[in-house]
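Exercise 7. Predict the joint structure of the components listed below.
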Amino acid sequence: MTVLLSGPVDVVTAGVEVLAEALEAQAVGVRRVDWRPPPAGTAADVRTVLADRRRAAANATAVSRVAAAGAVLADVRPASEALGIEPGTFFHAGPPLTFERASGPMRGALVAAMLYEHLATDPDDATAQLEAGRLRDGRPIRLEPCHHHGTVGPMAGVVSPGMWVFEIADPGSGRRAFCSLNEGLGKVLRYGAYGPEVIERLRWMSAVLGPLLRRAVRRRAASTSGPLDVRSIIAQMLQMGDEGHNRNRAGTMMLVRELVPELLDAHDDADLSMSDVADVIRFCNGNDHFFLNLVMPACKLALDAGRDVPGSTLVVAMARNGTDFGIQVSGTGDAWFTGPALVPDGLYLGDFGPDDANPDIGDSAITETAGIGGFAMAAAPAITAFIGGDAELALATTRRMYQITLAEHPLLQVPVLGFRGVPLGIDVTAVVRTGVLPQINTGIAGRVAGTGQVGAGLVTPPAECFTAALSRLSTLARRSRTS
Amino acid sequence: MGTHVQVLRGRYHDSVTLLATSRAVASVAGVGSAQVAMATPLNLEVLESMGFTAPAASPDDLVVALRLDDDLLHRGTDDEGVVAAAMAAMEAALTRRPSSGGGAVEEPDRTTAAALRRAAAPLVLVSVPGEHAAAEAWDALDAGSSVMLFSDNVAVADEVALKREAARRGLLVMGPDCGTAVVGGVGLGFANAVRPGPVSLVAASGTGAQHLMCLLDAAGVGVRHCLGLGGRDLSADVGGLAAAQSLRMLADDDGTELVVLVSKPADGAVVERLASLASELRLTVEWAVLGAGRPDLTEVASTLCDRVGSAVPTWPSWRPAGTPAPSTAGLLRGLYSGGTLCDEALAVGSLAGLGPIASNVAFDPGWPRLDASGPRALAASLADAGHAMVDLGDDTLTRGRAHPMIDPSLRLEALADAAADPRVRVVLLDVVLGHGSHPDPAAELAPAVSAALKESDALDVVLCLVGTADDPQGTTGQAEVLAAAGAHVLASNAQATRLAAALASGTPAAGAEEGS
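Solution:
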């Protein structure tokens, strides 16, 4: 109680510079806040939410649940079976979307899924049915966010019944999360391509890759080692130069290392040939992003554990559908707070340029929401060769993210920062007050349907997602005070 | 006359930095006047009143307004050259920042929460604009730190909520609008370098506390802590939350032997509750609630000297250089920078037989009220007034500029006006030294005093100098410069007021208490 009156006085100052200088003139230890005003019109909401006496404890609860969530690879299954998804229903990345408002790559991915599911004869036929909102046989076409079904999908994130998905489990809570299998780079469905090679690859993935992985994963889960610990690989990949969003090379290698013995054993009790096994290993090994589709559901699981804590200002989802960027917040239930998705700033493949880029798309920003990806860029200086910038940028980015996060992850650490935990748990109030927006590393899809990937780079959410969420938190805080 | 107005979007600097920047820009050759300010509605009004066309801008934007000198002889260059030089001077002034030590690669902390997460601190000093101040204060309390809220314009509801939470956590919220505190010998905000000792102050009045501490210092009585409350704490709305918490903390403080509570007139029920709390805590509290008919600060200082067994000294004063003005009667002009000091001068002056004294601060409702809605209105109002006492630190007069304890320009203009008014017999001023105040007020004030005395043979300037020997400006040096310029300089505001009143009524013998 008398710390103030008995101590040596160290002072943190926020505001007028001469007051800080006057303290220094008295040989007092002064640390200055680099304070800047928040956007006009937000001050009252900031005050109300900070005054909400539920907030500190709610955030501590929410973020500790996120940090504590485990993630093991439980199974690989068809989406129809794992998610109960019916023909004509498609999950997609980001907040809710109608086909009318969908961007090129989202349309292209939906066309690809229609073709893959044998629901259309050609791309024009697929587009006509999607526009009509009905299949030929009259059944409705439903577009639903992956996030509403415990699922996440990179880029367009389209999931249809015949696709196979990874099933990740949190052993502590039994909670599950799902993600499709990664197709590789270039012309792929998730970037909006729908050519014959795209459909052919998807068919092979459900005929060969999915079943073989399932056998391997189930064998591993039943072994004395127990199921593959995805969170442990994520912790290791951060110490091997990956950030878990745009660089997943070490993670993929560790996954393959773990699965190869099970794949080789698995062929004994299957009709599949050794050459199929070799194809599977070659496919996984040849795609540096194969592990991304395990990182994402692991992050989703962790953040879902932080949901629905009244008074918490923790962001539990950031996701983009190619048109809108949306966030969800622990204290505001299932509401999405959206703004127009921005076009990433980055490097382009071949002859592509900024004019070819689609606005930001994909559920993969779940990685940043969980403290890795752009937030862990300091762990992956090599990423800068892929997305632009230099090693200093990588360090500065991670350091900046600590300004808007609630905690540091106890297990996921950055070696170059002295094994400091990654900045974990975006705080809506901190984002609004500082104007520092979450930094997202991302791939860039071509804006014209069918193009595929055109580059990779850096992007942020639009600021209005956070001011809108803050406004809702403020309303709820006032309500809780009067009730 | 050429003008140049430019908006720099989203560029924030605090108002004191911008004041210094405006000065730097105004000193560029070819610039007649300059205003560099955040585009708040108030500042845009100020720009309009200066004759500029206010641009479309939001409060987050920085506005640069220049009036170019007409006289081409004073210029070495054309308009564009002047503007470029002015903008360069602005950038130079704004980018001057003290080195903040090593670790330049670390990202600067952007919120109080982030700074306290990096390392704990017992105290946070918040002086951001009022509507944002509560946010930083909540950060401090949530991290277990006490807060001094220098900021004003904080809502009463926020003040009450913050102070309740602080008390619940055993922490203290000083303010809002708390200008002065001393904690363990460290002066915060506007504060003097006082010797350490057994007396702790709990103060709802900034300059009042400064004055009392300086008098105690002159008497050889030291100060342990001065905990500021903010002007509203002892109102019925706030209920003395910070005062009560201060008393609880001081009751646990081994170094405090005697507590004095300094305040302007306060809510009676609140004071009663605090008195019973003090007796519950077995804490010895001297109540210095100021107002008409109550002991002035100099009397309070004398009482405190008695209580700690120290002799009451002769309060320091310095005689003016030059020949005394003739003993005629005339008007009194009090031009104060310290609000409580102005209140005290009104109370003391009212007993000195001068009759009604006009003022911009509420005192006797039957007395004339000065129009202080702006500097121009004030000047016009003073031109017609009889005896007058002005608080130049009043909110309406500090819009768009720094407090007169930092920026003397408004007072220098008022002093010149008073000297030019043949009815005025005596000008009464305060000068407050210490941390946070102007670095050398005598350098600006002494020439103005000389000029005023030169302008009028029948004028006296009486000055209350609030300071200590260890203040950065040095009290003795400041006093000698001001006395050499012709001012009567006194350490006691009550004595200075009585001297001024005697001079104004043409009975200088009553001024014998000066310098005796």
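Discussion. The two ends of chain B are 55 Å apart (CA to CA).
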